[in-house]
Amino acid sequence: MVLDLFAGPGGWSFPLARWGVREVGLEWDEWACRTRAAAGLLTIRTDVAVYPVQVFSGRVRGLIASPPCQAWSMAGRRLGLLDQPLVHQAVADLAAGRDIRERLLSACRDDRSLLAAEPMRYLHALHHSGEPEWVAMEEVPHVLPLWRQYAEVLRGWGYSVWTGILNAADYGVPQTRRRAILLASRVRSAGPPVPTHAQTAEPDSLFGPGRARWVSMAQALGWGATDRPVPTVCAGGGPGGGAEPFPSGSRQALSDARDRGTWTARPEQIPTSARQRGRTRSAVPHSSVENRCSPADPGPSTEVAGWAWSLRHNNQTNATVRSLDEPAGTLFFGHRANECVWIGEPTDPEAGDTSANGPQAESIRITAAEAGVLQTFPADYPWQGNKGQQFSQIGNAVPPRLAAHLLAPHLERDLTRDDFALAA
Fold this sequence. Notes:
By secondary structure, the protein is of the alpha/beta class. The protein has a domain at 2-200 and 396-423: Vaccinia Virus protein VP39 (Rossmann fold). 22% of the residues lie in helices and 16% in strands.
């Protein structure tokens, strides 16, 4: 089996399931576990820090770990950086078979910091039975020094190891999400997967196909890829009900007078009546359009129904704003300041408000379905929980397409820039 620590809603699991690989995910969050169950993924709901490793001994081919990033992320208080010496100490002790986590935990400023050392507890226990064959770990860039410490231990145990920072956009993810990666193997030379995409498209050559241009948000979402009338997409109730993930006071919510269109994975079922003042956004899922952009194929237009749309990430002065013809910035959620909204600028006076002040910009909150697609989950992925719980799962997940490229060599799978089976 493949053992997935901190499995989340299934970012690593989705490509493994598509390939028919038996995976067991360990996850604590209730709603992530419910999402995994709805997606048919085998899960043990438990605290990774207390679960006994011995039950897996003799059965683990690969080990995956994406510890919670909140303690280290730029989006949080980053107390993990202050706790980093304690985490390094925990890794060193666990690698030597000494467990002093309880004492170290009492000194941590963020009790989640020490979770980044948990994979070493599993690796040490499995090492005595010659397992696992390979290891793949992912975290925010600030954890790279810790991954290098892991690498030194694993090399001493006979692994080939590579660590570094990868940009998810280089692997067909419509998001410039940079992550610290560790890849290790007992049976092959470890190294990063070959990028399939680049910021600027490259032509094919005698040495093989060139890299495609980064996948844009417009391509992933299908916006502008059809001439068929489509509805305004707005926030709708999730499977678990509940309130919006963020208070609406800081952003103009969709008015009750507007038709309440919903995001759907079935284009043929989309009503054509939910149009407002020429302000429309395509609900075509990313699985229905070719999710790549070559030099001869610049991709869908960012001007949809007379409006040019961009994604604004968080409400701070240094907010990331990306046009639809670019990948999104790193998606993360969990605080009002991290709210993502679509900003529509009218390109035609006829498209906007006809008030005395002229056309007005429009702000509409991103939906969980849209955020999931920008993480390369399927358009109909069964997110569970209220909107806040869904957004939290999405923001913390590994993009399945990046995970597929990281895992493919270990599972003897080939992925190319034209392989979009995972987007179906």
